[in-house]
Amino acid sequence: MSHPEYTVRRARTSDVAAIRTLIEPLVAERILLGKERVVFYESVQEFRVAEASDGTLIGCGALHVMWEDLGEVRTLAVAPAWLGTGVGRALLERLEADARELGLSRLFCLTFEVSFFTRNGYGEIGEGVIDPEIYSEMVRSSDEGVAEFLDLARVKPNTLGNSRMLKRL
Fold first, then answer.
1. Pairing verdict, β 106-111 and 70-78
2. Which of 4, 59, 128, 134 is found 20 to 30 A from 20 (Cα to Cα)?
3. In a domain, 1, yes or no
């Protein structure tokens, strides 16, 4: 996806430092969860980045597969100077296209940015989003995002103030 001012592309390992720099202020504000550098390298293939025409990384987002039909939009962030310019929407659209290509039909996110995700077709969710037999398998995952989706007690301190949202593709 390309716009005159920026391009959305697959992340590369050389983008990890810039991704971490971009999200550091959001981690400090407890808007995003901090992750070790190794986690970014391990999941770099899940990331898309927005790159300005001068080569500066101005946004990022990741798609993490959680189940056969379910994925999570993670670490969606846009540089402050680029907020309100469509970068976040372009990243989200690319992640949704990736999800469809993978065969996913639902996308989850845990966010403080309820209005942004609502404008993009997401709705807040409560309990009972998945079948009990699938729940019993997913609860075995060590992934924090899965725990957040399942609303497990052990991740409650990470989720305070966040909204759990879902979109059907």
1. parallel
2. 4
3. no
